[in-house]
Design brief:
alpha+beta, 3 helices
Length: about 140
């Protein structure tokens, strides 16, 4: 799952207080291992830039929210294949498959009710004993 925020560092510190392990940190981006699904924390301006939107459209009361469900796939090639499937299904495509500076390959789309989604491949991610995704420690 992905959470978009005004202050990545503050949220990383907050969730680390839960005992959740910070796994990756880059400018405007971090991943926390929650013991379940990894939680990606990303600066709002990164998402706005990826989608060609103003940050205000993602702020509280804007057109979109700041929580974004993600669909994780096993390979970068599956991101590209998923793009074609989602596009063929009639989704409103908000970006094309892109490899981010931190290594994630992803794209964004909106369903018919304008709910945002991300499809992503997270490099080196594995799954634990209960099929929970685990982002590797840097």
């Amino acid at each position: 799952m992905s959470l978009y925020t005004r202050d990545v560092d503050a949220l990383v510190k907050f969730y680390a207080g839960f005992g959740w392990t910070p796994a990756v940190s880059a400018e405007g981006f971090a991943v926390i291992n929650t013991g379940g699904a990894p939680l990606a924390i990303t600066a709002l301006d990164h998402l706005a830039s990826d989608l060609g939107l103003e940050v205000s459209e993602l702020e509280d009361g804007g057109k979109y929210g700041r929580y974004l469900p993600g669909v994780l796939v096993d390979t970068p090639e599956e991101v590209d294949a998923s793009f074609e499937v989602v596009k063929s299904a009639g989704a409103r495509m908000l970006s094309t498959p892109t490899t981010q500076p931190w290594g994630v390959r992803n794209f964004y789309f909106a369903d018919p009710e304008d709910n945002l989604y991300e499809v992503a491949h997270l490099p080196n991610m594995t799954f634990g004993d209960q099929d929970a995704a685990i982002w590797p420690l840097a």
